[in-house]
């Protein structure tokens, strides 16, 4: 994964999320797998709304934990996302990206930072989409 102090810290502080049951027990709930319009994906986000509402950034309590769905239904931990409505925001010297409203998540304007701590991202450790992640094996949402 290269020498990335923030990704290393995130990996250590959030290793417990390798088991998706831990995320569920801590109040995270899944939203459908997010694919990029130009390819790649972010995976399935397990989001904790209470953590978004508190506006605090805590390395050990990311607002979203991201998993890549596998062909056998297994979810692999790939990244976390820190989200706040208060900004500009930064973590470990890395500025968050701004997303205005309306947005596809139904959130007010917010700041976010992805940290690809478990799966290398050729476009960068803090990029939104990862070209090596796919939603192909994600279960289709019920209509």
Tally of helical segments: 3
Shape: globular
Share in β-strands: 25-35%
Oligomer type? single chain
State the total count of DSSP E strands: 9
N-to-C series of helices and strands: HHEEEHEEEEEE
| Poorly predicted sequence stretches spanning 5 or more consecutive residues | none
Span between N and C termini?
39 Å
Mean pLDDT score: 92
Task: Give the % helix.
Answer: 10-25%
Tell me the major beta sheet: 7 strands, antiparallel
* Structural category: alpha+beta
Computed Rg: 14 Å
Walk me through the structure.
The protein has 3 helices and 9 strands, in the order H-H-E-E-E-H-E-E-E-E-E-E. By secondary structure, it is of the alpha+beta class. Strands 1, 2, 3, 4, 5, 8 and 9 form a 7-stranded antiparallel β-sheet that branches. It is globular.
Topology at a glance:
Elements: H1 5-13, H2 20-25, E1 29-30, E2 34-35, E3 41-47, H3 49-53, E4 64-69, E5 75-84, E6 90-91, E7 94-95, E8 97-99, E9 110-115
Antiparallel strand pairs: 1-3, 2-3, 3-4, 4-5, 5-9, 6-7, 8-9
Features:
143 residues; alpha+beta; 7-stranded antiparallel beta sheet; two-stranded antiparallel ribbon; 3 helices; 9 strands; 28% strand
Short description:
The termini are far apart. This protein has 143 residues and is an alpha+beta fold. Helices cover 14% and strands 28% of the residues.
